[in-house]
Amino acid sequence: MNNNFIIGKHILDILTSGMYNNPLMILREYIQNAADSIDLINSQGSIEIDVDGNSRTISILDNGVGVSNQEVERDLHSIGCSKKDIFNNRGFRGIGRLGGLGYCEKLLFETRSNINEKVAIVEWGSKDNIKKENIKDLYELIFNSVKISFREPFENELPNFFKVRMININRFHKDILMDIKSIKNYLSQVAPVSFNNNEFPFAKEINNKLCNINGFKTYKLKLNKTEVFKPHSIKIKNDNKIIDEISNIEWFDFKNENNNLFGLGWYANTSFFASLPSNVLMRGLKVRQGNIEIGNEYFLADYFTERRFSTWHIGEIHLSNGIKPNARRDGFENSKEYEMFSEQVNIICNKLSHLCRESSKIRSKKIIIESKLNEIDNFISNTMLIDKNIYTDLLEKTLNKIETIENQIKNSNDGKYYLRRLNLSKKKLQYIMDNPPYMEKYIDGRTLNKKNGKEILNDICINILKSKKIKNNKEEIVKDILKPYLK
Fold this sequence. Notes:
15 strands; five-stranded mixed sheet; alpha+beta; eight-stranded mixed sheet
């Protein structure tokens, strides 16, 4: 076999910026690596992200197992080679740590695995600098461009840690990597962080139940010294205005052909009134593995009977590590396990679509009931200005509306409220029927005797022209016209 072949250096484009359609995804990759490292020492651990706008630097620090001085060159020089267990770790391809290379001038890794070691520093130059090198082979590029050095630990430096430093962040995409708010919103949705117990009373129940899923765990993550939580709260707000509320949550599970659990999910019971606004960060039925989000709120959209229903809901699906995510973590690789998931999630999404449809029907019924009740109330409040013929006609129509609406109210979710309102209107209507409010009862004959027919007609025309209610209902206009002639 002829071994005279090379792996081109431009493979680096694919493994860095070419991998991600959102620069913030590189933070997810570093958090994923940090979580796997923390798991190796069975520690609760912590992850700290610091964004410095002045120096345009981002650092990601974890107190996981770290990399020993002896393994630094092998582990941090290599590409696409990882010691991680595909079934027990979130990352396993050995490429995520290079993600930052496409977005900064210089990428540094600092690490050690015990208190007796020095701190190893691995420096990667930027892609732009690498492209300037007169090198075509990826191996030669790494050999000549990546630098390794060691330093003495600082005072009180962690005995074991791994730190990523992205130096001189490039300006692009509205400078999103320097936008603290955008970073916080992204991490709250994607990262394996906890719910805020004060905001979301279902947090304890969810955490206890999800302990049955292999790979589920939460980590303390701080962004510029402030802890990041998932965005969930019992009250659903849009621009600080409460638009809905979560009443409770419902659970569902995923099982394989041997009846073994490989996934758990929950969704929130709300009013299901419409698609939630994009600034409601908890919207969507989010799919997570190792408690890290796969895709986004639209990931399951095609499983709903209508795509728009995907953002009517709030919930999560947590899958065990048996299903293999793709390299970008915006989906899964095709496999028997993923097919089982697809079949079962289709049933769930059909059920959730049905809830949206039923909610829509209920709202339509409410609108009809409200409209008819308003028409009845309008008749009652304006009858004193109607003559006998018009009054009789409207009374008959109103009685028919009452008969029709009573059946609709009985089948309404808010039947008691509407029934009370209708009964009050019926009492008022009965009084009107016992005391017909014909217009002639309210006309002051003395004012009419003082004017002849031409003057009265002239007054009526003037009042019509002056009326500010010309676009409102006819009874209101008549009331304005006759006001000078009423008792």
